[in-house]
Amino acid sequence: MTSCVEYEVKRTLIQFLAQVSGKDGQQNSTLVWKQDSDPCKGPWQGVLCDRQNMSIKKLLLDNLNFSGTLDLAMLCNLQPLAASLTYLSLDGNKISGGMASEVGNCKQLTRLHLSGNQLAGDLPSSLAMLNNLKRLDISNNQFSGSLPDLYRISGLKMFLAQNNYLGGTIPAFEFSNFDQFNVSFNNFRGRIPNVHGYFSADSFLGNPELCGDPLPKNCSDKPMPFSEAQTSEKPKGTSKEQILMYSGYASLGVIIVLFVVLKLCRRKKGENNKVEALNNRVAASGVEKARNVSSEYKNEVSRSEFSVVPSESGMVSQSLVVLSSQAAMELRLEELLGAPAELIGRGKHGSLYKVMLDNGMMVVVKRIKDWTISSHDFKQRMQILSQAKHPHLLPPLAFYSSKQEKLLVYEYQQNGSLFKLLHGTTKALDWTSRLGIAATIAEALAFLHQEVGHHGIVHGNLKSSNILLNKNMEPCISECGIMDMDDQRGSADGGALDILKGDVYGFGVILLELLTGKLVKGNGIDLTDWVQSVVREEWTGEVFDKSLISEYASEERMVNLLQVAIRCVNPSPQVRPTMNQVALIINTIKEEDDKSLIYEV
Ligand SMILES: Nc1ncnc2c1ncn2[C@@H]1O[C@H](COP(=O)(O)OP(=O)(O)OP(=O)(O)O)[C@@H](O)[C@H]1O
C-alpha cells in the first residue's frame, strides 16, 4: 500500500491534461494539477481517488472547452493508472483525434463518456475487450467504420453512438441488457437484429439503409449481400480455404470500391447540377411534369440514390434521410425529384415546391442553397428536430444534404397559412379563434425554446406564413430551426446575442397581425412602428381590426394581448419576456375569455 500517488502517475496525468486541453503543455486555468501536490490529497479538480489505496478512480473532465487531442494510449499504457481507472468522462468538449487501440489496456473502465467532441476514425477492436464496461457514450462525434464486437461485453447497459458516421451492420446485441441504446443518424445498413420490443424506432432513425422492426421500413426479401451477411454474423472461426476465398473477394471488393469512388467523385458535381436544372425548369414553367425529365437526368439520379457519396469533409453522406412518418418511410430521392412538382414560393431562404408522390401523398420540399452549415451540424440539427414531438410543431419528414444545398421535406398542409387566413380574400377569423391561435403557438414555441435539445431550439424565421393550419384547422409552426445562427444574430433585433429573443420578436409581430388584421409592411408602413406610435398617442382603440370591434370582442382582453405584443417587440432583446412567460400570460387571457363565454351562454 502506498501513502501517496506515484510520481509517474502524476506526470502522466499532467501530460494528458496538457494534450487534451490543447494548451500546449500549460495548465488549464480552471484546473490546478501540480507535480508537487497529491491528486488524492490536493486540489486536483476533476480527479477522484480511492483514498484507501491512494489510486486514481475517476477523471471527470466534462464541458471544459478542451480543444486538444485525445491520447488514450498515454493513460492506458501506464500500468498503475490503467489498473485503477474506472471512469473517464470528457463529454462536451471540442477534443479531436481518435480512440487508440491501447484503450483495451484500461481494463477496469466501467464508464467511458466521450460524447459531443470531434473524435474521428475507426473504433478499435480492443474496445470489445473492456469486460467491465457498463456505459459507453461516443455520440455526437465523427467516428466511422464498423462497430467492434461490443455484444461480447455482457455487462454493457448503455451504448450511445448516435450522430456519427458509423457503418456496416448492427451486431446481434442482447438488447434486454440495455437501459439505453441509440445508433441513430449513422450509416448503418441491413436488417436490425431482434430488439424484442426493448427499443423504439428513435434508436435507429436516420440510417437510410437500415430496415426491419422497429423501423417502419421493411427489409426486401432479397438475400443479404455477401459483405453484409459476413459482418452481421458472429464469427465462428475460419478455415484456410475460407481465408483464401475471403481474401479473393476482398481484393475484388477493393478494386470495385476504388472504381465506384472514382466514378462518384466525377459525377457528384453533375448530380448537383441536375437538381439545379430541375429547379430552373420548374421555375420557368410554373408547374412541370418532372417525370418528363430526360433519361440522362434520371440515370444520374438513380445512380446516386441511397448510395454513399463523398461529402465535403471526405466522409460519406446519405442521399435522402427519412426521419419520420410511415407514409414517407419508403421515400427515395429519385421519386422526389421525378415527381410532378409545382413551385409555390421563392422566399429569402430558398424555394418551395409542392410535390405529389407516387403513393398520392402531397409533400413540400424546401430547397436552401448556399447554407454554410456543415453536413455534420445540419444532420445533428435535423436529429434534434425530429425528436421535437409536439402536436403544433411541424417536423421535417426527410432531408438531403450536400455542400451546395439542403433539401427539407414536409407534409403538405392543405389549409394554408395564418398569413393567408388573415390577409387573404376571405377574412374569416373571429376573436376566439385568433386568441386560440396565439395561445397555441405561444405554447409550442415555449416548448421549442425549453424542451428541445440541450439548450432549446431557435425557430429563426417566425412569421405568419410559417404558421400553417392542419387538417383540423389547428395552427402548426413550420420550418423550425432551419435558419443559420449567423443569420439569426443579424436579424431584426439588431445583432442581439440572445437569439431566442429574436423569436419572441417574431411572435410579437404575429400578435400584432392577429390584433390589427394589417400586413407587417403595408403601403411602406412598418406595423410595429405604426402600432407603437398609435399607442403613444393614446389612441389604442384605433389599433384593433375593425371586424373584432364589430363582433364586440372584449376590448379589455384585446388591450391585454396588445400589451404582451408590445413587450415582445421591444427593441431591446433583454427586456422582451421569454416565450414561457408569454405563453402563461396569453393562457390566462384565454381562460378569462373562455369563462366570459360560459357566462354569456
Ligand atoms: N408544408 C406546407 N404546406 C402548405 N403550404 C406551405 C407549407 N410550407 C410552406 N407553405 C406555404 O408556401 C408558401 C411559400 O413558402 P416559403 O417558405 O417559400 O415562403 P416564406 O415562408 O414566405 O419565405 P421563407 O420561409 O423562405 O422566408 C407560403 O405561403 C407558405 O405558407
Automatic annotation (TrEMBL):
Transmembrane feature ranges: 243-265
Location of the protein in the cell: Membrane
Molecular functions (GO terms): ATP binding; protein kinase activity
UniProt domain Protein kinase: residue ranges: 338-589
Location (main, coarse): membrane
Binding site for ATP: K366
GO cellular component, one term: membrane
Superkingdom to which the source organism belongs: Eukaryota
Keywords in alphabetical order: ATP-binding, Glycoprotein, Kinase, Leucine-rich repeat, Membrane, Nucleotide-binding, Receptor, Repeat, Signal, Transferase, Transmembrane, Transmembrane helix
Protein name: Probable inactive receptor kinase At2g26730
Phylogenetic lineage: Eukaryota, Viridiplantae, Streptophyta, Embryophyta, Tracheophyta
